[in-house]
Amino acid sequence: MAIRGVIFDYGMVLTNAQDPAAHQRLMEITGLGRVVFEEHYWRYRHTYDLGEMNGPAYWRQIAADAGIALTQEQVDELVEQDVLMWATLNEEMVAWAGALQDRGMRTAILSNMGEEMMQYVQQEFAWLQHFTHHTFSCALKIAKPDAAIYAYTCEKMGIAPAEALFIDDRPVNVEAARQAGMQAIQFRGAPQLRLELERQNLLRGWPLPGDEPAHQDRVAADLDGIGTCSTISTLKP
């Protein structure tokens, strides 16, 4: 069955790896070493992504577990730096999504993220408006790899799971998409993705990662301002 929709994960697919400066600042504020910090950071991340706690509650829970004291100002900065850590865009992948959209392909973002990150990307990234649909876990109260979130996204796109291509960096999410009936590829970089698309003969006749976008002006305009986004304190409530 031909692919009629491409579904992108956000973090580590449409974005690059964690911004090291923001990551370092998080550790400095908490005073935790890297190994201990990572253990606490991920312990409640799924709960945060499910929308069962907001950013301040998430960081206060980390502080309680780690036995550290945080001021309100520190909590606010932790929320901000956490969002900025995941906001460095993979311009090649964003441009490829735009090239698909310009040719009429339905596209969606399916991402596990907390409400502060969701608010930030919705406000700061003009290119989101070109996607057919956005599924953010905190708004739906369902997160990958739950099968329901894949079915929901396909329904909102108006396609069958067999007509969807899902791209995610995490193997567990990719396997869940396959179990849901989708074509799915684990993302390790744009060159690898292109080779895999060619190997599987997916998206024949469509632009591939690395191709010249059909409308450079629109892509450039949407990407203008990357790296100069406002901080969390300026976000609308």
Outline of the structure:
The protein is an alpha/beta fold.
Question: Can you walk me through this structure?
Answer:
- Helix content is 51%, strand content 10%.
- It contains 13 helices and 5 strands.
- The model is unreliable at 225-231 and 233-237 (pLDDT under 50).
- Helix 2 (20-30) runs antiparallel to helix 6 (72-85).
- It has helices at 10-14, 20-30, 34-43, 45-49, 55-66, 72-85, 91-102, 115-124, 137-140, 147-157, 171-179, 190-199, 216-223, and strands at 5-8, 106-111, 133-136, 164-168, 183-186.
- The longest helix is centred in the first third of the chain and has 14 residues, at 72-85.
- The chain has 237 residues and is α/β, with parallel strands linked by helices.
**What proportion of the residues form beta strands (DSSP E)?**
5-15%
| Shape label | elongated
Write out the CATH superfamily name of the largest domain.
HAD superfamily/HAD-like
What's the CATH class label of the largest domain? Answer: Alpha Beta
- What number is the mean pLDDT? 92
H-E order: EHHHHHHHEHEHHEHEHH
Largest sheet: 5 strands, parallel
Number of helices: 13
What would CATH call the architecture of the largest domain?
A: 3-Layer(aba) Sandwich
Number of domains: 2
Helix/strand-derived category reads alpha/beta
Q: Estimate percent helicity.
A: 40-55%
Low-confidence stretches: 225-231, 233-237
Question: In order across it, which strands form the biggest sheet?
Answer: 3-2-1-4-5
- State the total count of DSSP E strands: 5
What name is given to the CATH topology of the largest domain? Rossmann fold
Rg from C-alpha positions?
A: 18 Å
Oligomer: single chain
| Intertermini distance | 43 Å
